[in-house]
């Protein structure tokens, strides 16, 4: 799979956050915990997103498993 860079306008994502180094596959576990709650989210727009911030000085990072939603 080749990476593809896509520019999007600003959007809102609702989901569950993880913070750590993903040493024990926590991100996969996060999605497993999040998926059953997708039906509870109102105004879903463009599907699922996995968003992350660059790691901090310890190597830990924030990761959001979520769905994009229309602003209300």
Short description:
With 72 residues, the protein is mostly beta strands. The chain has one helix spanning 26-34; strands spanning 12-20, 44-52, 61-69.
Explain what the structure shows.
The protein has 72 residues and is mostly beta strands. Helices cover 12% and strands 38% of the residues. The chain has one helix and three strands, in the order E-H-E-E. The chain has one helix at residues 26-34; strands at residues 12-20, 44-52, 61-69. Strands 1-3-2 form a three-stranded antiparallel sheet, with helices on one face. The relative contact order is 0.32.
- The order of strands across the largest sheet is 1-3-2
Radius of gyration: 13 Å
Distinct helical segment count: 1
DSSP strand content: 35-45%
The protein's oligomeric status is: single chain
Helix content: 10-25%
Order of helical and strand elements: EHEE
Write down the overall mean pLDDT. 95
Termini, distance in Å? Answer: 35 Å
Shape: globular
Structural class: mainly beta
Count of β-strands: 3
Question: What summary fits the major beta sheet?
Answer: 3 strands, antiparallel
Could you name the ranges where pLDDT drops below 50 across 5 or more consecutive residues? none
